[in-house]
Amino acid sequence: MDLIQVSPKEMAALFPRPSHIYNSVDFTELNAPKCKEGVAYLTFRDTRLRGGLILGLDGAEARSPFSAPFGGLLLTRRQSAGAVEDMYTLAAAFARERGMAMRVTLPPPFFDGDLYAKSANVLQHLSGGDSTVEINYHVDLRGVGDPEELYSRSAREKLRQARAQGCRFERLDVTPENLARVYDVIHRNRMHRGFPHRMTLAQIEATSAVVPMDLFMVTADGASAAAAQVHRIAPGIAQVVYWGDLPEAQHARPMNLLPLEIYRYYLEHTSVRILDIGHSTDGGIINRGLCDYKESVGCRATPKTTFRIKC
């Protein structure tokens, strides 16, 4: 198998329907200025095109992804374990020739369980076990009638409290005004909790031009109480990039109403059936409160693993 580096235009033509939006050329080019040494679009071929990998070249590392929750291989079709091994081996050699380690974060298994199993096996071997496993949560709405049934007993009681407090849910059109409104809630929530808010409002506005996006808001007494920014990242899959409530509104339990109404929106109005809620660990360390909350509103855990292959 051979590794051939191509242009962004060639990559887009070869992989017009990547398995998730973060492996698209449009998303990559939007974020390319974040890489000191640029972006490498790699393709792998023998008798035919087998796959591709996008690497951000940044200092001592070649990263997939370099500015997204996960990356991994792009495939033309299902590939054998041997082909997956060859592709990652060639990519690691490409990085090593440039004096770089290679870091890969795989999408959770619900995107493609076959590719996840093969990639995790290969990368575990190539990395010598240098990996970090995050607990990633998702909600599977396939076959669900009433999503309230996904809630735990305690979460349903808090949901009752939210309704008694007059919380109201709405989906917002993606406009500069609504992006700013949602951003304000999320930013204040993350500052209160001591979490980083890595995207600026300008970056979110730019991202909305290349990533299909949904905005949601819960109000209490007519004022903003909680909000969510959700990306449509793959056929049938959306991802909650940010959600949170305002400290002064927590008594109204808006974060118990918000997930339920998001589930209902996607069930009733879209073909989305899996919601990626994101990880609840940091460097593999469990945030117990966050894990407990997500499980109480119907989320289930799968691994999201990052592998580092030394130079």
Q: Explain this structure to me?
A:
- The chain has 311 residues and is an alpha+beta fold.
- It has nine helices and 15 strands.
- It has helices at residues 8-14, 25-31, 81-97, 113-126, 153-164, 176-193, 201-207, 254-269, 288-296; strands spanning 2-6, 39-45, 49-58, 61-64, 74-75, 101-105, 131-140, 168-172, 213-220, 223-234, 237-245, 274-279, 281-282, 285-286, 300-309.
List the helices and strands and how they pair.
Layout: E1 2-6, H1 8-14, H2 25-31, E2 39-45, E3 49-58, E4 61-64, E5 74-75, H3 81-97, E6 101-105, H4 113-126, E7 131-140, H5 153-164, E8 168-172, H6 176-193, H7 201-207, E9 213-220, E10 223-234, E11 237-245, H8 254-269, E12 274-279, E13 281-282, E14 285-286, H9 288-296, E15 300-309
Parallel strand pairs: 4-6, 11-12
Antiparallel strand pairs: 1-2, 2-3, 3-4, 3-5, 6-15, 7-12, 7-15, 8-9, 9-10, 10-11, 13-14
Helix pairs in contact: 3-4
Order of helices and strands: EHHEEEEHEHEHEHHEEEHEEEHE
Anisotropy-based shape: elongated
Rounded to the nearest angstrom, the distance between the terminal CA atoms is 21 Å
Low-pLDDT runs of 5+ residues are none
Radius of gyration: 20 Å
Helical run tally = 9
Structural class category: alpha+beta
DSSP strand content: 25-35%
Biggest beta-sheet profile:
13 strands, mixed
Helicity range: 25-40%
User: Count the strands?
Assistant: 15
The averaged pLDDT comes out at 95
